[in-house]
Amino acid sequence: MYKSKEGHKMADESRTGRKLDEIEEIAKGWGKLLAEQAFPDGVGLDVDLWMMEEVTVRATKALVSGAIETMTAAQTEALEGQVSCPGCGQSCRLDHRSRPIQVRGGTAKLNEPVAHCSTCRRDFFPSAAGAEA
Ligand SMILES: [Zn+2]
């Protein structure tokens, strides 16, 4: 779970549950679309469960990386500009560093915000994504 500095935005458990139910329904719809896209002429009798699974797993991994990369990029954008060093409070310029991360269900490229404080001689990560060095 991602946490932001302002605290968890989806703190209300039941509201979070409803939202997740909603997303699950939407994603199930995408699954149906995927099946149609993967086999536009219909699923032939030669298509076995292994092949169905192969198509689904590939799509799932792509979905995971697409969603995670979009969400983390949105957070990174929110942090653009100058940030204060947690050690001395000096204003430091924010840069980005890209690295692959493992998430449940696949991998994603995290464009991680990183700042360097010349006074404390250390890098720090003002990310809300909780990515530590
Ligand atoms: Zn500092």
List all distinct small molecules, including ions and cofactors, that are bound in this structure: zinc ion
Overall outline: elongated
Mean pLDDT: 85
Strand line-up across the major sheet: 1-2-3-4
Written as H for each helix and E for each strand, in order along the chain, the element string is HHEEEE
Portion in helices: 40-55%
Quick structural overview:
This protein has helices at residues 13-38, 49-78, and strands at residues 82-84, 91-103, 106-117, 122-124.
Structural key phrases:
single chain; 133 residues; alpha+beta; 2 helices; elongated; disordered N terminus; disordered C terminus; binds zinc ion
Record the SSE blueprint.
Elements: H1 13-38, H2 49-78, E1 82-84, E2 91-103, E3 106-117, E4 122-124
Antiparallel strand pairs: 1-2, 2-3, 3-4
Structure commentary:
The chain is α+β, with helices and mostly antiparallel strands and 133 residues long. Helix content is 42%, strand content 23%. The protein is built from 2 helices and 4 strands, in the order ααββββ. The chain has a 4-stranded antiparallel beta sheet. A hairpin with a 4-residue loop joins β3 (106-117) and β4. The longest helix is centred in the middle third of the chain and has 30 residues, at 49-78. The model is unreliable at 1-5 and 129-133 (pLDDT under 50). The structure holds zinc ion. The site of zinc ion (ZN) has 7 residues, from loops.
